[in-house]
């Protein structure tokens, strides 16, 4: 057997784990990995900022269900990545971050780009390790993947100092235990039985499927459960689209401020099955559910049981397996006719909510109503198209109108509320689905965070179309200041007019500005027809306040965010 250096070990392990793409920016501490990539079939996608690189790896994991891989250099490269790491952690996304570091004999000597990286990142990740024996690099990469995707998934960090990375060792000395199998355990049969009994006695039960349902690939078993039982279902987080909004028993996102059936369902349900999702801000920390509602937590993470609200029953296990268990145990006991009246009630609530919202969806006002802008994009996209959403108010508006027909066809930050994800997420969507149409709905404030990833798109030839909700401000923050202090007491929130479409044209892409609602669809058609990165700069009304802005304005008040609902 011959010699092998640390970079080659990293690449060898990544290939064994089934990785196909690495997202990174080059740096001296990463040289051995970059060199090894030349002789591999890995696609090394280099970006314009480490924040974007880790966001792309995050998106890759959401899309594929397998860990995304990001490699960052020491010091500023490492610190540039931290926001993205925290975003992945809050969303429970499996990302493997491999970090370079100063040589081991340079620690404490004020070497270039030296900081205590392990101490900084450990609180932000699920697992972290520093490799100080080159023979253990291969083993450590496999362990990183195992921790990223097992149990409740999340980001992990593996640090390899430059001297360890560059050391050559005999292949016979390398510790190699290979990839570890992923085990999917079901719930306790007694908890399954109790759940079926509770549902059988309920008058107004609902199921809410979240990220755990997506990572468990629970769509088939969840659909079987819903159709067999007749219990209405909602989705949330990365669970959106696991069962399509167009299914007769799916009422879309369980988003209390979304026009439709969500709010009455959340307020009135007597039994709520949370399948692979948590009780967080998005459910008003549990306060949105009726005080007497029985909560069933079906989760892979036992630590989530009891957070914000007592769980009547806890089922610990894989969401897909649990859904199958419930379908099997409920056969003949959970009958659609029992809940037919409840389903009809929700259908009427959905129709009434949409009718009340119709004037905003169809608004002809100028400047453009942001709801009309989002609605036009949603109508334009078909079920096979992909969308990344980014921004404060922009994300709220898009969530209020988006039709989720397939899982992971729409990506957004999630609970961390992280701006800047739109362009990086879209890059990963396009790389994962070449030939498909990919769009971005983004606020003008969020656009500034990773704007130079347009250069990445152009360099890679990715024909992504970006639609900007341009209210010339940090809209959500501006509106929250207006609500708290008055319209004349806003500060630090005005961005002014910027011809973003011309900036993209200067980079070599397609750009267009629209000022009227009837110009939106024709502009989208021209942008996609251009077959290159494109930006449509849509000028929208500045003073329309979203429910999200009301929520932000409530921060620090005694009643908190529950006032939104």
Verbal overview:
The chain is of the alpha/beta class and 565 residues long. The protein is 39% helix and 16% strand. The strands form four sheets. A six-stranded parallel beta sheet has the order 3-2-4-5-7-6. A six-stranded parallel beta sheet has the order 11-10-9-12-13-14, with helices on both faces. The radius of gyration is 24 Å and the shape is globular. The termini are far apart. The C terminus is likely disordered.
Assess the beta-strand content as a share of residues: 15-25%
Q: How many β-strand runs? A: 20
CATH C-level label of the largest domain:
Alpha Beta
Provide the CATH architecture of the largest domain.
3-Layer(aba) Sandwich
CATH topology of the largest domain: the name is Rossmann fold
Strand order of the largest sheet: 3-2-4-5-7-6
Features:
39% helix, Rossmann fold, six-stranded parallel sheet, 565 residues, disordered C terminus, 20 strands, 3 domains, alpha/beta
SSE arrangement:
Elements: E1 3-5, H1 6-16, E2 21-24, H2 31-38, E3 43-46, H3 50-64, E4 68-72, H4 76-80, H5 82-91, E5 95-101, H6 117-121, E6 127-130, H7 137-149, E7 156-161, H8 162-166, E8 168-170, H9 189-200, E9 205-209, H10 211-215, H11 219-229, E10 233-235, E11 250-253, H12 262-268, E12 271-275, E13 294-299, E14 313-316, H13 319-329, H14 336-361, H15 370-380, E15 386-390, H16 393-401, E16 410-411, H17 422-432, E17 438-443, H18 444-447, H19 453-460, E18 465-470, H20 475-485, H21 500-507, E19 510-514, H22 520-529, E20 534-539, H23 547-553
Parallel strand pairs: 2-3, 2-4, 4-5, 5-7, 6-7, 9-10, 9-12, 10-11, 12-13, 13-14, 15-16, 15-17, 17-18, 18-20, 19-20
Antiparallel strand pairs: 1-8
Helix pairs in contact: 1-2, 1-7, 3-5, 3-17, 9-13, 11-13, 15-16, 20-23
